[in-house]
Task: inverse folding
């Protein structure tokens, strides 16, 4: 999955804005938003919030958790805990990144927040790497990943599923080639050899069939 | 502003007609006679889930022709309603933005399916032949596309190479059929509580709690995804 | 097959190396290379058929490894050749998504006739599929390639393109190095063709 898709999905998160215009509610397909009243907060999807902000039509109200004290606590707990703690938003990185880049003026102590959010992400990423290492060495094929956010899952997607798939594939090939060797003595029965069907990833399987007898 | 009011009204009315259309769809389905009509929002929801599932699943999932048709007409209807509006109208821009997002989801979803159809053409065709009409993975348009594609590829390979190859036994073309690796690992999120899910080759069992996340070979949870008890992420 | 320095399968492997070297384009179809591989396949096969019958008659087990070896070489040749064609096919398909239903003339020269035919067939069935989606409502899958960020994007003109009419009738002049703020959906095709460059 492309990172831009992760962002696209994260942009559905609802966020509070304070519009400087008034308007009746909008009946969008995914649900209604508004009414908009100048000076009064209203919840809208993030993609709409960033658009309106770029058009100077609103101020963005940072979510409650985008607060130094709250994040400091989260960071400490993340350090203390062996497991992944629950983040205040399923898309905390996407939300933080978009809000802070679109509306830095709406976010008090923006730079400090940026640093601490990055810290939290880094702590979690390094925890993730350690557990992946243990997981793969333990030859597991199943693991629980509670409280990981979509972006974090995505960050290991290029490594984790593929290396597990490869390990599984080698194991199947090892089993298959054992079978293959043991079948060599019997192959005059014309059984068509061992094909790779069902094994491995999507590859064209070329079987070692004894076709020169079946002319 | 009267234009926009008309627009809003028209859009609301269309919500109702979408519900009516969905009620029709449900009537055809014996099992769901009492099913509640779905809103456009719900249709979009179903499509979004189908889209992410499709992106993450190694195999082709069941088609969503009904949902897709409803959403396409909803989008077309909105475009029609918006045609006469001032392009700078606040409402126009917002609706337009949402339509862009929906169009992207639909296009990306269908592209993803075409990629799988092209990669596993013969495998998918063969599998669908064994399925009942209601369980087919390919929509009728996709089925035609798959057949055409298989034929074009076959024609190309025959003309350039295979007809010059000696000893093309019956088995060889079959060995060239490419199938997805159903044991490839996927990320899963449980939508509801599911007990006794087998998670390993040694029959180890786990109970999934709603919202819990897992990495697991696809095949072990394919039925949960199909029944919408879990989704791929 | 008595060339001294050459192994079975070398020609077939060369085909693939050629493709790998030019990963961004479609190199000219290697007519000679393909023919040589096909000849090698045929030659190996004939040698094996001859010896297999003598193996069957005499039961001489000493021929067994040789038969196996030749068979493996034959399979490898087939596999490399088919992989070569398959990879070219992938690139030809990608071209349909990138450039639309007409093959750019410089690329067309690199294709053999069956490949051109494949492109045209592929192009036609893709178009008719896109028209048929949603009970004939149709959807263009070659657009909306990336998640929408904004309705408008900022672009720079890479070459002189001339007049470009927007859906609302407004005409913009796309001159080399000029910058514009245009509706994303309408200029996406030009961006893909490299006429406009998206500036972040």
Result:
């Amino acid at each position: 999955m492309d990172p831009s898709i992760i962002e696209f999905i994260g942009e559905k998160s609802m966020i509070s804005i304070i519009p400087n215009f008034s308007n009746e509610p909008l009946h969008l397909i995914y649900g209604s938003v508004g009414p908009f009243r100048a000076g009064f907060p209203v919840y809208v999807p993030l993609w709409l919030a960033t658009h309106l902000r770029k058009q100077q039509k609103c101020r963005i109200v940072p979510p409650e958790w985008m607060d130094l004290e709250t994040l400091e606590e989260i960071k400490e707990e993340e350090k203390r805990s062996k497991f992944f703690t629950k983040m205040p938003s399923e898309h905390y990185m996407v939300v933080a990144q978009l809000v802070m880049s679109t509306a830095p003026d709406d976010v008090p102590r923006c730079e400090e927040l940026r640093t601490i959010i990055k810290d939290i992400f880094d702590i979690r990423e390094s925890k993730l790497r350690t557990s992946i290492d243990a997981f793969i060495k333990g030859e597991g094929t199943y693991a629980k990943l509670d409280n990981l956010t979509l972006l974090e899952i995505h960050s290991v997607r290029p490594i984790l599923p593929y290396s597990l798939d490869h390990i599984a594939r080698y194991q199947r090939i090892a089993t298959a080639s054992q079978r293959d060797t043991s079948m060599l003595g019997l192959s005059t029965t014309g059984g068509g050899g061992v094909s790779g069907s069902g094994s491995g990833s999507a590859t064209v399987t070329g079987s070692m069939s004894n076709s020169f007898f079946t002319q | 502003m009267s234009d926009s009011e008309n627009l809003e009204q028209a859009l609301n009315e269309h919500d109702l007609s979408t519900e009516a259309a969905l009620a029709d769809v449900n009537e055809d389905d014996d099992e769901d006679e009492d099913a509640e009509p779905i809103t456009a929002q719900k249709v979009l929801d179903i499509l979004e889930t189908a889209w992410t599932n499709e992106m993450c699943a190694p195999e082709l999932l069941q088609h969503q022709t009904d949902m897709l048709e409803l959403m396409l007409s909803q989008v077309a209807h909105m475009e029609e309603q918006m045609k006469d509006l001032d392009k700078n109208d606040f409402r126009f821009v917002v609706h337009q933005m949402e339509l862009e997002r929906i169009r992207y989801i639909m296009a990306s979803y269908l592209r993803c399916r075409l990629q799988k159809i092209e990669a596993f053409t013969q495998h998918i065709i063969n599998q669908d032949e064994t399925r009942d009409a209601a369980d087919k993975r390919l929509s009728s348009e996709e089925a035609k596309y798959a057949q055409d594609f298989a034929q074009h590829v076959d024609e190309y390979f025959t003309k350039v190479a295979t007809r010059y190859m000696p000893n093309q036994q019956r088995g060889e073309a079959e060995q060239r059929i490419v199938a997805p690796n159903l044991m490839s690992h996927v990320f899963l999120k449980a939508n509801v509580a599911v007990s006794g899910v087998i998670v390993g080759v040694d029959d180890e069992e786990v109970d999934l709690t709603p919202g819990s996340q897992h990495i697991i070979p696809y095949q072990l949870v394919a039925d949960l995804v199909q029944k919408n008890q879990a989704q791929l992420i | 097959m008595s060339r001294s320095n050459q192994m079975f399968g070398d020609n077939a492997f060369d085909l693939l190396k050629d493709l790998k070297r030019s990963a961004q384009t479609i190199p000219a179809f290697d007519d000679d290379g393909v023919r040589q591989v096909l000849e090698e396949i045929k030659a190996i096969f004939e040698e094996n058929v001859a010896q297999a019958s003598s193996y069957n008659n005499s039961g001489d087990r000493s021929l067994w490894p040789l038969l196996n070896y030749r068979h493996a070489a034959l399979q490898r040749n087939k596999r490399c050749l088919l992989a070569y064609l398959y990879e070219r096919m992938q690139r030809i398909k990608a071209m349909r998504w990138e450039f639309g239903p007409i093959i750019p003339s410089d690329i067309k020269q690199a294709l053999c006739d069956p490949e051109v035919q494949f492109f045209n067939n592929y192009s036609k069935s893709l178009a008719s599929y896109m028209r048929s989606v949603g009970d004939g409502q149709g959807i263009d899958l070659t657009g909306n390639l990336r998640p929408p960020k904004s309705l408008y994007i900022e672009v720079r003109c890479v070459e002189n393109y001339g007049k470009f009419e927007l859906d609302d009738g407004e005409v913009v002049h796309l001159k080399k190095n000029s910058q514009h703020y245009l509706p994303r959906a309408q200029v996406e095709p030009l961006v893909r063709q490299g006429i406009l460059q998206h500036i972040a």
Summary: DSSP finds eight helices and five strands in chain B. The longest strand of chain B covers residues 185-190. The domain at 181-233 of chain B is CATH 3.40.5.60 (Ribosomal Protein L9; domain 1). The two ends of chain B are 42 Å apart (CA to CA).
